[in-house]
Amino acid sequence: MRIGELAGRAGVSVRSLRYYEEQGLLTSTRSPSGQRHYTEDEVERVRLIQCLYAAGLSSRTIAEVLPCVDSPSERNSDEAFERLLQERDRISRHIDELARARDALDLLIDVNRAHRAQLTPRRPRA
Amino acid sequence: MRIGELAGRAGVSVRSLRYYEEQGLLTSTRSPSGQRHYTEDEVERVRLIQCLYAAGLSSRTIAEVLPCVDSPSERNSDEAFERLLQERDRISRHIDELARARDALDLLIDVNRAHRAQLTPRRPRA
DNA sequence: CTAAGACCTGACATTGACGTCAGAGGCAAG
DNA sequence: CTTGCCTCTGACGTCAATGTCAGGTCTTAG
Prior knowledge:
homodimer, mainly alpha, elongated, DNA-binding
């Protein structure tokens, strides 16, 4: 398929796909006229890349761990594997951080609700 | 206290504190010579602001919810309160997203571990 | 054949939370 | 008074993942 279709099916912009290729996260075969062509598999790959971006990994970091996706059986991915573990931990810590922030907001919400209840004693959900 | 001490105690840069003030997140009293002075309370406020930044809120959004911190009892914070609920939900969704990414990494880790175990059958943790 | 629409490269624009630097003034200790 | 550190304002720099535009080529439906 061509780049427009891949973009549509993976839910990203054409611009992003070209950027991913530039960053070494994605490869394409080229038609004689220079247009990029992709296989079905690339759809999932792009979704994975997006997932990792959403988890806060940078292009560089994604590039570093991709060997674990592409050739999990090769010895050359020692560094990549280390990175994978690191990123997993970073995500866990980030989740904890978000949970603490959510707790703070929950507390604020409770306090505000209490005050609001007092202000409008007989007008709930207005 | 002056800005350097606040920065140290709250764990942020002096530059950041001035930026927060510029964004309306923090206020200071000024000495006759123009230097900023802060009370003890501001330490906690700065930590809260940092917490919200870490949770992905922008300066603008933090400014929008701060009325709920400063005057939780006032009617004027309707919009702020709405925003508070929205952000809480956004954080929850973000946590779910991160958890999915972590699951994906865990799977990758398992697969890679399996392959590595096969490659070096009698050399664990080398 | 031809027009519309997808695609190409290259380059500049954007956004947000800062870093950093310049040039100037403030303040406590010796 | 001076030395050294803190602070001030203002302004430009940064980084990363895109958006967007220009000027040109390719493909395909009619």
